[in-house]
Structures are given as structure tokens and as C-alpha cells.
Amino acid sequence: MKFRNLAGVLSAAILLAGTSIAPALELTAAHVNPQGEPSNTAFAELAERLKSSKTGLSMTVFPQGQVGDEKDAIEQVRLGAVTMTTVATSNLSAFAPSAGVFDLPFLFENGDVQPWVVSDGPIGEEIAAKIEQESGLKVLGWWSGGERHAFTRTVDVKTPADLDGTKIRVIGSPVYLDTFNALGAKATPMPYGEVYTALATGTIDAAENDSSGYRNMRFYEQAPHLSLTGHFFLYKVVVANVDALAQLTPDQRAEFDEIFAEVTKHQRELFATNMTDDLQYLKAQGVTVTQPDKAPFIEATKPVIDKYAKIYGEDLIKRIQASR
């Protein structure tokens, strides 16, 4: 009898000991970003850091559109085929309309301070909760996609008039389309991977992107006129599959969250510091860089703000603009 009791105690002890050992768990991530782009660098860093995981975590990254474009990546995360991805709010808004408020033109006064006051504060928590409710995905964090600028094949854009009739590639978001149509251009949605060839063949006259994307995708070879319009600030939201996250033990989740927070800080810093280096490099390649007065562009796009204030709420937009 004593032996049977001892055996039961030992069995229980072994069972409890087993539950304290975190099982090995591989996470996966997919994104569309090219080498040298901060989100690409951040996921590579995250995977490298997890090689030394103390709780059994590891990560495999599928970069540069290996699973498709950003909407494809979102679908893969929703299905659970991929653990997480980072996507532009403009693409995420197709699954979570509330994310679209951050796509409004000239919403922020700058791209290095104000966006993080918003995303890391009550407004960011509010929008993240709505995204999770609408899409079923967990918002892990807000990464930077930088300020976006216009670049053309032949024209230095100094005023909205310089965009009149210009066929410009934009992300296929209603806000993006409305913004550039309001500036007098012919906004043209097109997959990111087709932009270089479309510029080379003259299918489009211009496009818009952050300086990092403009440089790393070598768009400057076909469109060497860069105007620092800063018309949008782009959040790259990191979203994950809820069921996949639920598989992490408390210790694994704590370790992941700590490393992810450090990587997020670095990703944002890269966008802030890369801008100067990008511009120096681009000028050395013969790119003409123009710094226009933003006031006429802001005035021309006010009807876009007014239109979407009816959708997202005038109060929310004012709260974002007033955040410091």
C-alpha cells in the first residue's frame, strides 16, 4: 500500500515537473518587404534573437512576398498557416475597417514622434481593440512604414498642379485613391511588384513610397524625381493568429513580448535614421530631391478628411491630430 502511494506521489511529481518544461514551439512570420527595409530587418532580428530562446521558441521567416502580397499574408495568418505578419494599415483596413483612419492624408505633423504618441497611447489601444474585433487577429504592435513621398519619371513635384493628369501608382485603398485624385492626379492601384516595370514602360508616370522602399526597390532608376511631400505616415501593424499565440506558455509569451518590444524599438529607430542616409545615397545616384511647401497639398486634400470624418468620426480624427 505504501509503495502504491509512493508510486502515485512520484507520478504526480513527474507530471507536474513535465508541465513546467515549455515545449519547443516554432513561430512563423511572412512579409513583403525587401532586404534593407526596416521591417525585413526587424523580423530577421526577431528570428535571430529567438535562436537563443530560454523557453523553447524559434521562428522561421518567409520574406519578400514568398506567401503572396500583404492581403495574402493576412489571409494566411487568419487561417493559421502563418503565425504573424506586418502589413500596411491600408491593406489591413480591407479586413478591419477601423485601421483605415490612420491612412488619412497629413494626419500627423511629423513621422518620428506624434505617430508613437498615438499608437502607444489610449487611441492606439482603442483602434487595436477594434481591429481585433473586426478581423479576429491579435495586434502585437505598431511598426513604422515611414512617411510617404511622391516620385515621378520626369517632373519635380513642387505644387499640386505638378501632379495634374499624372498617372500615379497608389496602394489600392479608397483613401489613397481619393487623396491623389484630390491632388489632380490619376490615382492607379497596382501590385507593388509591378511598379518598377510600369515606370520603365511608361504605363505609369509616378508612384509614392517611403524613402527606404524607393531606394531598396530601385524605383529611382526609372523615376529619378523625388518630392518629399510626406502625404501619408504609414503604420506597419504586426498582427498574429490568436490560436497560435494561445499555444505559448506564460513564460514563452513573456519572453516573446520582451524581445518583440526591443525589436519594435529598433525597427522604428531604423526608419527615423535611415531617411538621412537614403537621401544622401539617392542624391549620389542623380536623384533630384525636392522639398515642397506642404500647405497647398494639405489644403487640396481637406475634402478627403471631411469625407472620412463621417466614417471614422470627427472627434477621433481631432484627438489624433491633437496628440502630442
From TrEMBL:
InterPro entries documented for this protein: DctP_fam (IPR018389), TRAP_DctP (IPR004682), TRAP_DctP_sf (IPR038404)
Signal peptide (UniProt feature, chain positions): 1-24
Domain of life the protein comes from: Bacteria
Keywords: Receptor, Signal
NCBIfam families attached to this UniProt entry: dctP, TRAP_S1
Descriptive protein name: Tripartite ATP-independent transporter DctP family solute receptor
Organism per entry: Aquamicrobium terrae
